[in-house]
Write a structure and sequence with these properties.
Elements: H1 3-15, H2 20-46, H3 48-60, H4 63-78, H5 99-117, H6 119-123, H7 130-140, H8 152-174, H9 188-192, E1 197-199, E2 207-208, E3 213-214, E4 220-223, E5 229-231, H10 232-239, H11 257-276
Antiparallel strand pairs: 1-4, 2-3, 4-5
This protein binds zinc ion (2 copies).
């Protein structure tokens, strides 16, 4: 089984753990999101002025910014999962992206879809003709585009495809040349400020695994969402370079879009693997 197919079966297994009422609720929120994107793309193509503004905006973005735009768009779709598979901590990125960025992302995805579907179509047309080509393609493939499907199972199928794309994107951004996943700093705004301070109880709390020194009774320690305690000075230094707990590797929010996609998917993959292994203890 290739990576994509393996990810697909893990995600399907994770979704199958949801009770029917939640699955219906997820399908409904997916359907309305896809439908909103579809309507937005439709108005974008129906207005030559808006189309040319969006295209100029895309032209002005360097390749790295374009990738970031797509990643932000995928992350906003991934957010739809959080009521059903909540991560330990909220992501620092807002679930919604600006209208201009949404337009640019939708147009870029349409370009990508056309390139995949018929690579010669755009090459054979001068840029002045792209509006006509894109509009024709969009309206001809109306029912198969952007998740506009007829039933909930088709919407879920489309969502699983998006999640597989997210996983691939996060994997590509996280690993370089097959090396281990890169470290990203924890988000200062979201992680550091709300971390609770707890007083180390009687008998101490064992050693802080970062400095290997005992945490003395009565001293204030920092508690990560997983419950592990560390000296404040040690953990703050640690989180400026990494967004994982030094004990259990729990991933904390970061200001890195790919890191956030990876973190949100991790919880889902854990549930899916557990379901596939027949292990109900997650
Ligand atoms: Zn320490
Ligand atoms: Zn931990």
């Amino acid at each position: 089984m290739d990576d994509g197919a393996a990810t697909e079966s893990i995600i399907t297994a994770a979704l199958s753990t949801l009770p029917p009422s939640q699955l219906v609720s997820l399908s409904f929120s997916l359907f309305s999101t896809f439908h909103r994107h579809h309507r937005r793309l439709s108005s974008l193509l129906s207005s030559p002025t808006l189309f040319s503004h969006t295209l100029n905006h895309l032209y002005s973005l360097p390749l790295q910014k374009k990738s970031l735009l797509i990643a932000r768009h995928l992350l906003s779709t991934l957010h739809l999962l959080t009521p059903f598979f909540p991560p330990h901590s909220a992501t620092p990125f807002s679930a919604s992206i600006s209208r201009r960025d949404l337009d640019a992302a939708l147009l870029l995805l349409l370009f990508c879809e056309i390139r995949q579907h018929d690579p010669k179509l755009l090459e054979a047309s001068p840029p002045a003709d792209w509006h006509r080509v894109l509009t024709k393609y969009f309206f001809e493939t109306l029912l198969s585009l952007s998740g506009i499907k007829t039933g909930p199972s088709e919407v879920l199928g489309c969502f699983i495809e998006i999640l597989v794309k997210c996983k691939r994107l996060a994997g590509a951004a996280g690993c370089r040349g097959g090396k281990a996943r890169r470290d990203v700093p924890a988000s200062a705004a979201v992680v550091v400020a709300p971390l609770p301070s707890v007083e180390v109880g009687s008998g101490g709390s064992g050693e802080c695994v970062i400095c290997r020194e005992e945490m003395a009774e009565g001293r204030e320690a920092c508690e990560l969402p997983c419950g592990h305690l560390f000296h404040w000075s040690c953990v703050l230094r640690w989180l400026t370079n990494r967004n994982t707990c030094p004990c259990c590797r729990l991933r904390l929010p970061s200001d890195d879009v790919s890191g956030e996609i990876d973190r949100l998917l991790e919880g889902l993959v854990r549930v899916g693997r557990s379901q596939l292994n027949g292990d109900q203890c997650i």
